[in-house]
């Protein structure tokens, strides 16, 4: 089973605000200010091709961590070959697939004499522990301490609980490498936009997105395209990628409250109760990217002045993605503090995307209360009950997240339901 699904994004060095601004409260002493470090992308062994983005993600997060949590001067390089290293140390890594788990190794070497300064190895790592940054941050802390870098309590606390935004930014940055290699501009633009949204300090991501979208909107589908047939084929590929990418990567998020509440009154005679939880289904960050990519495609195709000749007069406004209700089937479980599944339920959420003038509107299921069947108070009910979303459209939730399907996220408080767009309401069929 593949544990990661390669999507895509542009690969470039991370640009951050000066380290002092971020790191001043996260370390004690010098924070390793005398160290210059080159961090190269880890190698992989036994990894499916679709897992390749994880190697870039590990590199991105290590660079971000050294910049944010230490005073180490650092940079990232795609590969060790051909690098003129003026830095004192080189950090390399390796990720090995071992059955359904992974082995991660990190080493720091003094480039002036070849002496190993620090090393770290962890076995039996789950894929989710890599994708949620826990395994990477544990390795980072171990390596940093061996380099005599001491963290403050605030720094250690932040590393144990990385924000979703910094993790998503690193993942989205890494997911573009194969898209760039495979010339998949829709994926590249989407994840580039996502990365800059999750971390606005990635100024190069914003600049690159703006540059690429402007180029596409101008009608330029690629500098290498020459001749009418080749140019039409290029546009056809891009239009088809738009349809297929967003079909397999719906730009929506299902947020849910993992702590259930009681519905109605207790049935004292039968000693049963009904528990419920709330969910919110709405547009994710990727929907904003989809809107911008749609505008760039629409504008660019018009600017070619060849839309009718090529037979693309109805594209992209009549994409199979638009003006149809899409239903997602969700499975949830109710679990007590003995880790017993005491009830399960199935429910659906819906989405519809409508093009109108020069943008897209989304119509989604919003805040909904979902009930489980009644449970026995004496046998099933415990102090701490939790809800777990098991799958969406038959895809395990963890796998769906790895593949870039609908995002599923437990949250402390649900976002407020958005007002319905008049466009989506009035255009319902």
Task: Describe the structure in your own words.
- The protein is of the alpha+beta class and 429 residues long.
- The protein folds into 2 domains: 19-177, Rossmann fold (3-Layer(aba) Sandwich); 249-283 and 310-426, no CATH class.
- Helix content is 35%, strand content 28%.
- It contains 14 helices and 19 strands.
- The protein has helices at 19-23, 53-69, 127-131, 134-146, 153-160, 164-174, 177-181, 185-198, 203-217, 228-248, 285-304, 307-310, 397-403, 422-426, and strands spanning 27-28, 36-40, 43-45, 73-77, 89-98, 101-110, 116-125, 150-151, 252-256, 261-267, 272-283, 326-335, 341-356, 359-364, 368-371, 375-376, 386-392, 395-396, 407-410.
- The strands form 4 sheets. Strands 2, 3, 4, 5, 6 and 7 form a 6-stranded mixed beta sheet that branches. Strands 9, 10, 11, 15, 16 and 19 form a 6-stranded mixed beta sheet that branches.
- β12 (326-335) and β13 form a beta hairpin.
- α8 packs across α11, α9 packs parallel to α11 (285-304) and α10 (228-248) runs antiparallel to α11.
- The longest helix is centred in the middle third of the chain and has 21 residues, at 228-248.
